[in-house]
Write a structure and sequence with these properties.
Structural class: alpha/beta
CATH class: Alpha Beta
Radius of gyration: 16 Å
Number of strands: 9
Order of helices and strands: HHHEHEHEEHEEEHEE
Strand order of the largest sheet: 3-2-1-4-5-9-8
Distance between the termini: 36 Å
Strand content: 25-35%
CATH superfamily: Vaccinia Virus protein VP39
């Protein structure tokens, strides 16, 4: 229910959200992720928002599937990236062993913890062996509605506890950053690189 409210928020505010994120400088994080992949690897931009990161990955020579739950953001992102952005919710992910990397930047944090666990298991299945996930959460222990959207925040400790229930994934790196959007520098984010274990 909370996630539907969140999708409604993004549909209503799609234009404003697009304009506030599409030109945000994020190359340091993008390149850090790409450095762990071979050139031309297959990436899923999972909750692509404005399409900013998809466009960057495509320009660097990677293959990208981009999806988002907001129909309105899909339209804007498709126009910006010049690829078809698929409208689907996270729970609909059904690929098996398809992706070298999944980029879930500020996206799956909108899921309540039980749904987040279900989706994370689907992400593991969608990855090739030794594939990687980048994801990020607002830093803290809050879970609930904030500014019209649902959020599950994480700390290093709460994420470790969460990940202990997900088979086949290890934390390769984790670090804290400040929000890169103008005027939001006091907001902290937990960034994670997760790697799928080899069988």
């Amino acid at each position: 229910m909370e996630y539907n409210t969140t999708l409604g928020y993004y549909d209503i505010h799609a234009d404003r959200f697009y304009k506030s994120t599409v030109n945000v400088e994020f190359a340091t994080m993008q390149r850090h992720f790409l450095a762990k992949l071979r050139r031309g690897s297959y990436i899923l931009d999972f909750g692509c928002g404005s399409g900013r990161d998809t466009k960057f990955f495509l320009e660097q020579g990677y293959r990208v599937d981009a999806v988002d739950g907001s129909k309105e953001l899909c339209k804007l992102a498709s126009r910006y990236t010049e690829i078809e952005v698929k409208n689907m919710i996270f729970q609909e992910l059904s690929e098996v062993g398809r992706y070298d990397g999944i980029w879930a930047c500020s996206s799956i944090l909108h899921l309540p913890i039980d749904e987040l666990a279900e989706v994370m298991r689907k992400m593991v299945i969608a990855l090739k062996e030794k594939g990687i996930i980048y994801t990020s959460f607002k830093y803290g222990t809050f879970a609930g509605e904030r500014d019209g959207r649902f959020f599950t925040d994480m700390t290093e400790e709460t994420f470790a506890e969460f990940l202990s229930k997900i088979k086949g994934l290890d934390v390769e790196e984790q670090w804290i950053t400040s929000d890169v959007r103008p005027g939001r520098g006091e907001e902290k984010w937990l960034n994670l690189i997760l790697r799928k274990r080899q069988r």
